[in-house]
Amino acid sequence: MMSIPMEHGLILAGVLFAFGLAGVLMRRNVIFILMFIEVMLNAAGLAFVVAGSKWNQADGQVMFIFILTMAAAEVSVGLALVLKFYHKFRTLDADAASRMRG
Amino acid sequence: MLELLWLIPCLPFAGFIVLAVAGKRIEPRAVAFVGVGSVAASAVISVIVAVDFMTAPPPGYAYTQTIWQWLDVAGFSPGVTFYLDALSTVMMLVVTIVGFLIHLYSSEFMEEDEGYSRFFAYMNLFVGSMLVLLLARNLLLFYLGWEGVGLCSYLLIGFWYKDPNNGYAARKAFVVTRVGDAAMAVGLFLLYNGLGTLQIQELMQRAHQSWSSGSLLPVAAAALLLGGAVGKSAQLPLQTWLPDAMAGPTPVSALIHAATMVTAGVYIIARTHVLFELAPPVLAAVAVIGALTLLLSGFSAITQKDIKRVLAYSTISQIGYMFLALGVGAWSAAIFHFMTHAFFKALLFLGAGVIIHGLHHEHDMFKMGGLRKQLPVTFWTFLIGSASLSAIPLVTAGFFSKDQIIWLAWSSGRGGTWLWAAGVAGALLTSIYTFRMVFITFFGEAHAQVSKRPGLRMIIPLVVLAFLSVTGGYIQLPAIMGNITVFSGFLHTALPPVRPLSGERMEWILEIIAVVISLGGVLVAWLFFLRTRGLATRLAETSPGMLLHRFWFSGWAFDWVYDLLFVRPFVWLARINRDDFMDLAYAGLAWYNRSLNRILSLTQNGRVRFYAMGIALGAIITVAIAVLR
Amino acid sequence: MILLLLIIIPLVGGFFAWLYGRRSEAAPRWISLVSLLIEQALVIVLWFRHPASGIGPGAWFADLQWSWIPRLGISFHLAMDGLSLLMVGLTAFLGIMSVAISWTEIRERVGFFHLNLLFIIAGINGVFLAVDLFLFYFFWELMLVPMYFLISIWGHENRTYAAIKFFIFTQLSGLLMLLSILGIYFVHASNTGVYTFDYFSLLGTSMAPAVSFWLMMGFFIAFAVKLPAVPFHTWLPDAHTEAPTAGSVVLAGLLLKTGAYGLIRFLVPLFPEAARSLVPAAFVLGVIGILYGAVLAFAQRDLKRMVAYTSISHMGFVLLGVFAWNELALQGAVMQMLCHGVSTGALFMLVGALQERIHTRDMNVMGGMWERVPRMGAVVLFFALASLGLPGLGNFVAEFLVLLGSYKVSVVATSFAVAGLVFATVYSLWIVQRAFHGKKRKEWAISDLSLREMALMFFMIISLLWLALLFWRSLR
Fold this sequence. Notes:
The structure holds 3 protein chains of 3 kinds.
Chain A: H1 6-26, H2 30-54, H3 59-89
Helix pairs in contact in A: 1-2, 2-3
Chain B: H1 7-22, H2 28-55, E1 62-69, E2 79-85, H3 86-109, H4 116-135, H5 139-157, H6 164-195, H7 200-210, H8 216-232, H9 241-244, H10 250-259, H11 264-271, H12 273-277, H13 280-303, H14 307-327, H15 331-358, H16 371-374, H17 376-389, H18 397-411, H19 417-442, H20 456-471, H21 486-491, H22 504-531, H23 534-541, H24 543-553, H25 558-576, H26 581-602, H27 608-628
Antiparallel strand pairs in B: 1-2
Chain C: H1 2-21, H2 26-49, E1 62-69, E2 74-80, H3 82-101, H4 110-129, H5 133-142, H6 144-154, H7 159-192, H8 199-202, H9 209-226, H10 235-242, H11 245-270, H12 272-277, H13 279-299, H14 303-323, H15 327-358, H16 374-387, H17 394-409, H18 411-435, H19 451-475
């Protein structure tokens, strides 16, 4: 079986992470920010998996499962917040919520 | 009876306290009773004490009375201690008796003033302080009296406080004399640190023992004391305050600015004469200051319009004579002139007061004129005073005292031709300005109608002082005219006599010159100001005359120079630095912190994405540092 | 025990004043007054019990030591000598005055006001009595916080600024002192192995000159800020001007004295050599303070600010006196502390009374008020004369003694300081002229000093005269 070199996997993970980060920083829409956070989480998960396959250990995949569950929880909480957010500000622009006071 | 000494200064103080506390609540008659009565009682007691002192002199010709221990610090233990010797006896008598007469006069003069009780409170405080000054045994207590009289001078010059000009004159007087006092304070520090005591007699003894004549310390100490003396006695270069001090009520001018306080400088120099003898350059300076002052202020007196300012310049000039006498070592002559001057100058001021009182506070002599008929008693007493001031020979006290000074300025070992010449020139000026004043005020046509005639309480002091101005001189006659030396004989226990170096023939010649000069001055005044009235005015209208007139009128422009040199820079400095430039440093620090705060608070903008970027950037930098190191 | 009482009484009094302040307005005033009167009575008892105690430091006659945190060598150690007795007496006296002068001025949160006032007084008493350096620092800080509240709650227009400025200056300099206290603590421990903050043990600690110098500087800056010495003085005019009258009286009369007291009690005995090397600098600072404060005072338009600046000028004499290093000047400095406390305290009270009537402190609108308020004018004149150093009043005696002593050290500095007396004349007379003499700028319809105020002024005048004329006699 032709193994993919670890470097390629890590580079892909890095690129994905950078892509996600750029998205978080650049998009103003809260939904998109959440989506890009997903991308970043998956990039991190990918890095775990690659590293796990490199050392032939299951730890990486275990970590990925963790991340997956955590991401699911995060999305559910996040979307709930987005709903509240939209309810309050009538927009999905994250910059609209720049004040500490309710 | 000497034990009564303490009462003499205490009675006026008691009067002051009563008037200060209750003055508003008691009747004017009661105010006058307390105010005049306390000084009268004090005068009576001082006569008793003085008689006792003369008939049964205490051992050493000095009586000491300690009231209580004032300070006691590390060996420095001045007490509230009075010291009575011949010198302080004479001064005390003059101060209390003249003081009493002036108080009596004021009780009528100030009658309609709303500040009647305040006036007498201040006057009593003054007499008390002056007596403390005279009777103090140590220089610290002396300084207390010295500043006390300065304070009363300030309070009384500014007595009519509603006019800011009076306040200005009062403050000027206090501040200018305080400059001298500051020098004197340093002098006290020097004396204490050099000799270990401030008790005058002991100080003189120790100075005599441990300091050599003309060495640095006695010269410095004497110079510093002289600084205080010229301030208080209105001599060059601190004379500028006295003419302005005429803003006060006229009895104040008579008491403080003619008879008593301004001669305190003469007193302290006579009191510390041992020290001044150890400092020949300073003693010479005293003579020169006296000579210059008597000339400069004599010229100024000739040009004044305000009758009180004439008298003020005349006072400066006469104190110049006293300084001249001190400077040539004729101590008792200085005190003699002090005494006669107290009589006739108080008389002149009180006479001027009658006129001012009668003419609705008119000070300008040129608006008076012809008062001879309207105020006969005032005229005759004023004439006697003027004669005494101009040293009209044989019949006046001023003649004997002033000519003694002029004679000793020539013949004393420390005297000289120039000092004598200055004295004689001053005598000429004195007669001119005095009789100019008499002729303009009392002769010629009347310009004003007198509305108020003096009552008995104002007349009696005038008559008594006129009597003293004539007879006061006969207790001390020159060697060539009877050689009576009651006064100097009494004083010699406190002040060493001076031995003239020239003989009797010289004395005759000089005496005649002096007589001619003083009578000549009267003649000049008569020519210029009575016979041909326009003459002086025409002279003053030529351009050099005008310049000179303005120059003299302003008192040789000293005020202008001091204003330019001291007052303006001080005020300017104060004004530009009102907000304290040092606070700028702290304000700068605060500003710097606040701007940092502003910059940092910009980062707290509440935008999630901005924070995320911050986190990312921080992470990247951390990783970069970790990797690249 | 009596020493502890001196601190406890105001604390308890303040607490009760606050407690009863909710129910009535008058109760806190009476409670504070009574507790301070008891305090004053205690001081008088002590004064008569130890009549020959003298006024200088060093003759201890009362002592109280409880252990507090023995592991660190901290004890609750109070002691009293002639110097502390005088200072505590001044504290009680001015405390009574400031309670009485606030009688009508303070109408809001009366209870809390008196709590603060009495806590300050407790703190100041603690400062004057503590002989454990840690305890001293504790009290030093204790008096700041209520003072901060006093200014920032009951002050005038610009009070927040002034309160914060005051707090930062004193707090920062206090921290420097804490560093120095810890420094000397550790130096002493490394020398002897004994960890203690006790003053008497720390006396004579030997250390390297450089160490000694820097430790001393920590103390010096703390005390110089409090004193205040130029250039650390700029908190003072703001704090004094903005504080309520009682606050100004306490600030000028007492708080400044803690700085001077610190110099005499701690700085000089703990670091004699290093302090000696500071003499020239201290003289220069003292003389600059005297002259600079006087010039600034003359320039002011705000009457209260003017009085505040005169404090700087007067406290310059204290600096001279302490560092002249001889008995005369030191006693003069102590005398100056007492007399300045009384005379400036009285001036602040008068300015407060005036402000209560005309609602301004601007001298440009005053003038010619003597006619309306002759009693007030006369009393202001009296204290203005005291402040210009008129012989016969306390300040003169103090300044004379200081200068007599400082002459031994430096003729030049003394001469300049004497020039300060001339400047003092200028500004003091200016106060009277601007406010009371001259033309009326406005028809003031104001009342003269009331009976209560006259009574207070009477005590102030009597005490100043007593200090000047009879004080030394009462020592024997």
